[in-house]
C-alpha cells in the first residue's frame, strides 16, 4: 500500500500537519522526505530498507557512497537526504557552541558520531572548547588507513593554542565497527594529556565512534 492508498488522515504529511511530527514513526517521517517508492517497492518499504537495523541514528551517518547503493534512490533523493543529514550536524554544532557541552554529554557523542562514524577510513579529530566548555571548533587533524593513524602531539598542541582552547575532547572512529579502545588508544590519550598539560589545556574525554555507537573513555575510567 502506497501513501495515496491510505485514508487522508493516515497519510504521513497530513498526519504531521494535524498532530505534529512527534506523532509519526521513523518510517513515516522518512516517507515524507522520499515521497515515492519504486516499481515493486512502495515508499514505506523503501523507508524501512533505508532505516535498517540501526534506525534513524544509523541513517544519519550514511555516506554518499552508501546511498548510491540503495536501489530506487535516485540522485535527487540522495541529495535531499544528505542535505537533511548536514542540517542535523549543523544543529548539533550550534547547540554545542551555545551552551556548555558537558551539561549534555550525549550531545557530544551524537555530534561526533554524525561527523565521523560514516567514514570508511580512520580519522583523528579534536573538539576544541573554551573555558566554559563550549565548542570553538572541530578539526580532523589526522587520517590513516583502516587499521591505524599517525597522531603528532605537537600538531594537536599548536591547534589548541591557535583556538585559545581551555580544554579538548579527543575523538577517532573505528571503521571496523567496534568501539572498544585498544592499548594504543589508551597510550595515545595519556601522551596527548601530558603534552597538552604543558600549555594548560585539559583533555576531558576521548570518544571512539563506530556505526550507531560511541564510547567515552572518561566514562569507562580510562582517562
TrEMBL record:
Annotated PROSITE patterns: MPN, UPF0758
GO biological process, one term: proteolysis
Matches recorded under InterPro entries: MPN, RadC_JAB, UPF0758, UPF0758_CS, UPF0758_N
GO molecular function list: metal ion binding; metallopeptidase activity
Alphabetical UniProt keywords: Hydrolase, Metal-binding, Metalloprotease, Protease, Zinc
Pfam families: RadC, UPF0758_N
MPN domain location: 101-223
Keyword NAD: no
PANTHER family for the chain: DNA REPAIR PROTEIN RADC (PTHR30471), UPF0758 PROTEIN YEES-RELATED (PTHR30471:SF3)
Similarity field: Belongs to the UPF0758 family.
NCBIfam families: PRK00024.1 (NF000642), radc (TIGR00608)
Protein name (record): MPN domain-containing protein
Taxonomic source organism: Limnohabitans parvus II-B4
Lineage: Bacteria, Pseudomonadati, Pseudomonadota, Betaproteobacteria, Burkholderiales
Amino acid at each position: 500500500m502506497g501513501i495515496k492508498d491510505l485514508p487522508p488522515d493516515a497519510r504521513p504529511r497530513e498526519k504531521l500537519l494535524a498532530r505534529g511530527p512527534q506523532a509519526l514513526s521513523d518510517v513515516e517521517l522518512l516517507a515524507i522526505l522520499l515521497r515515492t517508492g519504486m516499481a515493486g517497492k512502495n515508499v514505506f518499504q523503501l523507508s524501512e530498507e533505508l532505516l535498517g537495523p540501526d534506525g534513524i541514528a544509523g541513517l544519519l551517518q550514511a555516506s554518499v557512497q552508501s546511498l548510491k547503493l540503495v536501489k530506487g534512490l535516485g540522485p535527487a533523493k540522495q541529495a535531499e537526504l544528505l542535505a537533511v543529514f548536514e542540517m542535523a550536524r549543523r544543529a548539533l554544532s550550534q547547540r554545542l557552541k551555545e551552551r556548555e557541552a558537558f551539561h549534555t554529554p550525549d550531545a557530544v557523542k551524537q555530534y561526533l558520531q554524525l561527523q565521523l562514524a560514516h567514514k570508511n577510513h580512520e580519522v583523528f579529530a579534536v573538539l576544541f572548547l573554551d573555558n566554559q566548555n563550549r565548542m570553538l571548533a572541530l578539526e580532523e587533524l589526522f587520517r590513516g588507513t583502516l587499521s591505524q593513524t599517525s597522531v603528532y602531539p605537537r600538531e594537536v598542541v599548536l591547534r589548541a593554542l591557535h583556538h585559545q582552547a581551555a580544554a579538548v575532547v579527543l575523538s577517532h572512529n573505528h571503521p571496523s565497527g567496534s568501539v572498544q579502545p585498544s592499548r594504543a588508544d589508551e597510550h595515545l590519550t595519556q601522551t596527548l594529556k601530558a603534552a597538552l598539560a604543558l600549555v594548560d589545556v585539559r583533555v576531558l574525554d576521548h570518544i571512539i565512534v563506530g556505526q550507531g555507537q560511541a564510547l567515552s573513555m572518561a566514562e569507562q575510567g580510562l582517562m
